[in-house]
Amino acid sequence: MATNLRYTGYHQDQNTAFDEELALVGRGTPCGEYMRRFWHPVAMTSQVEDVPLLIRRFGEDLVLFRDKKGRYGLVHRHCPHRNASLEYGIPTECGIRCCYHGWHFDIDGTLLEAPAEADDTKVKQQVRLGAYPVREYRGLIFAYMGPPEEEPAFPIYDTFEIEDGELVPYEVTQPCNWLQIAENSVDPMHVVFLHTRVNIVQFTEKLGYWPVMDWRERPIGLFYTKARRVNDYIWISTNDVILPNFTQAGAVYENTDGTEPKYFGRCSFTRWVVPVDDTNTTILAYRHFNKRAETARDEWKTPEALEKIDIGELRSRPYKERQRNPGDYEAFIGQGPISPHVRENLVTSDRGVAMYRLRLRNEIKKLQAGEVPLQPAAYVDNPIPTYGSDTVIRLPASDDDEAAIAALQRQVGDIYEEADRIKGEARYDYLAERLAPLNT
Asked: Which residues, in sequence order, are CB contacts of 142 under 8 Å at separation 6+?
């Protein structure tokens, strides 16, 4: 009997093996060790109250607290005396005290007091509570969870210091592996279909216009431009990815009508995709409100609006509604807890995903060979230049329009890179001066 080639489900490979090198984030794993060499946000400042906050990051159960001096501490969950949980610890004038037997620890893990022991006990020299350095910055708490002797300088990015700007922190959690969320930022074609053509328009109709792409690597990551024709103008939107898990993008809701030029308008959000463990992730982020970002509306500061920036549509919608109009959340969790790459069929439009995975793999191998990962603040002094932006240039249509658009966006990308070492307002002045002559 001839085989029916139209229905091949029985013969399809159902292999569920996943990419352990990139997916696993626990201590001792290749990616887990690599990511621990960087500063990551671990919570919002507003979440830390007068009692400790229990969190889980990179597969480790941790307690975040603020002592009476206003200092933040991030420590292992369990007291090294008898394993009581420090989520029930008492923040003190200097550190935290375990509720069980009163052992008192400073924010760096030093044992300051073991009340039931003699004053000259050696236990204070022999026992330490696991602790990590933390830093509060503009509404987020950042931590470095790698080897203390390799602690890098804390990176501050240029979009955080725009004059009179406001950063609104937010958090979105996802029940899946970190990588399938992070690599969404280097998949521009999902915006065309998931957010626009397949479903209702979730952000703005023009995101569904077919883009011309230009990809560029830089020492600390990569960025890419998406050039779309809007009447007589070319709208060039840029996504910036800084390794391992930082991303910025251009306007989310701005519906440029292509009636005037624009030079390097800045990003709408900055986010970090932070592993909770191998199958859970939290996105900790800032929404940007400043004179260079897209025109803001007050309602964008609500929790619902902030969540929709990251996942297209609310997760709290009824299931059938999510089926009828899925967003990023459904795309992420629909892949399973950890997406099995062996069942994928990558094509040319997945170039960014392939580039990102390869960069991660190469950086992991460098670390395994003994090379310390290049840190953003070591590549260039703070504030570190970023590329998340929008530029609009007048270029009337021509016979070979796609080639003309591609040439223009390459020029724009070159000019962006020229300004890497220019700081503050001088960078914007330089870019405007160099971009303006590109108008035809």
From this structure: 39, 40, 41, 42, 134, 135, 136, 154
